[in-house]
Amino acid sequence: MRIDIITVLPELLRSPFEASILRRAIDKGLVEVHTHNLRDYAADNYKTIDDYQFGGGAGMVMMIEPIDRCISKLKAEREYDEVIYMTPDGHTLNQKISNQLSLVDNIIILCGHYKGVDQRVRDQFITREISIGDYVLSGGELGAAVLCDSIIRLIPGVLNDETSALTDSFQDNLLAPPVYTRPAEYKGWKVPEVLLSGNFPEIEKWREEQAYLRTRERRPDLLDE
Ligand code: ADE
Q1: Going by CA atoms, what residue is nearest to atom 2 of ligand 1?
Q2: Given a cut of 90, is residue 111 above it in pLDDT?
Q3: Do residues 132 and 147 lie in contact, with contact meaning Cβ atoms separated by under 8 Å?
Q4: Residue nearest ligand 1's atom 6 by CA
């Protein structure tokens, strides 16, 4: 899989891909992540990428021309399955979307800034608009990093058995059950007996029950889906 991220702040997108599981996925050749500085595609010598909005009002709008130039260059090099725009008014990210996107070959992610992008960019180039939650970030970069993390860990071969995504929260519309490790007793606080029993069918049953109880208590909306 290849991910191309278009941004005005490429520095903000460095460290998430330099550490941990994402780094390993890149090193293993399972994913390529390329960032493109939108200013490199500006049409003037001042590297202008934003302008005042027509009709007046506070805040700058990202111009169509630099974005068109960048997206068109990328599209001339390969086919893209999705061109995603990170925006608070997009579809809220969930595990189903991440699962879908983990199966495609090439995606472009455009990070918004200021008051957002000229609507014609959204109309002409964008296939999917994604928000990472009902709050406003200063730009789409941190959202793009979250989206990439959630997608990349699902690519076959990225996680090993121990970190398998199959037991993650949300994977079957249930939250994950509680987990414990040694010591079995700490300051009198005990690990549930069943987990020490070695009775694996019982342990599995307990985990399923706990996942259900936790979901009913914290996220009953998931049980209706
Ligand atoms: N850009 C600004 N806020 C955002 C959000 N909540 N999700 C995705 N991109 C954003």
Answers
A1: 137
A2: yes
A3: yes
A4: 88
DSSP alpha helices (H): ranges in the chain? 20-27, 64-77, 95-101, 119-124, 141-152, 200-218, 220-224
Tens digits of residue pLDDT in 82-91 = 999 999 999 9
How much distance in Å is there from the Cα of 87 to the middle of ligand 1?
4
Is 88's C-beta closer than 6 angstroms to any atom of ligand 1?
yes
Residues 143 and 202 in one domain: no
* Among 92, 132, 135, 146, residue to substitute to test ligand 1 (most atoms within 8 Å of Cβ): 132
Question: What is the SS3 assignment for 176?
Answer: coil
The DSSP element (H or E) to which 86 belongs, if any, is strand 82-92
CA of 40 to the centre of ligand 1 (A): 23
- Together in a domain, 208 and 113: no
Q: Is residue 75 situated within a structural domain?
A: yes
Substitution candidate for ligand 1 out of 7, 62, 87 with most atoms within 8 A of CB: 87
Question: Are residues 177 and 108 part of one domain?
Answer: no
Asked whether residue 163 is domain-assigned, the answer is: no
pLDDT tens per residue across span 11-42: 999 999 998 899 999 999 999 999 999 999 99
H helices of 38-94, in order, are 64-77
> Residue 67 belongs to what domain range?
2-152
Q: Are 93 and 199 in the same domain? A: no
Indicate the DSSP class of residue 203.
H
